[in-house]
Amino acid sequence: MTHSLHRRGSRESLEKDFVVLSCSAKGFNDDVFGEKGKEFLRICLRHNPVNFGDMKTGNFLYIDPEEIIARVSNTTILEVTYDDKQDVVELIRELKEADLGVSVVISGLHDVVEDIVRQAGLKRIHTREFSLGSHGRLELLPEYEVLEFTTMCGHAMVASGLVKHLIAECKLGRRSLRDAAVVMGRCCSCGNFNVNRAQDLLARNLGLWVADWPVY
To answer: Model pTM?
Structure first.
């Protein structure tokens, strides 16, 4: 899966941003993935995720986690987001022991993911994918600071206009940082959106705005 590879941000910020994904393989385990996917999510929940979801059901910012697990089907994609490297190490270690027979993808800074895999006791990474950046009419993109929010949803469901509106709302004292981050996160139904990182980014952006407009 490539949709979680294009996250923008500083190294310091991205070191606290990981997506762990699992989905069925057509023709191999798509007849039995449902039960395996449920166990995958149960294991993931034991390691302090900041968000998780099933692309067909939604994420736990607006749906009860047990309902999400109960509705996992044979042909879906499950995504779990973390903000702590050691939590991911412990997660991958437990998934290795569980040996569910499903593919697991970790999205993050490549050298950090390499270290996670090593600490978890795996011999190597099977496959690597890299983002090649943005190309074309780049002048049509929103400000880089806004892209740091919107690229946390790989399906572009967090609108740049919403991000700017919510930053202004926080600047004016109408919303808390947490509330604004959750509003954004609910738009990303798969669970890719790192609400803790978004909260940190909101705090940083408040100093770049005058009332209700950015001064990037």
So the answer is: 0.94
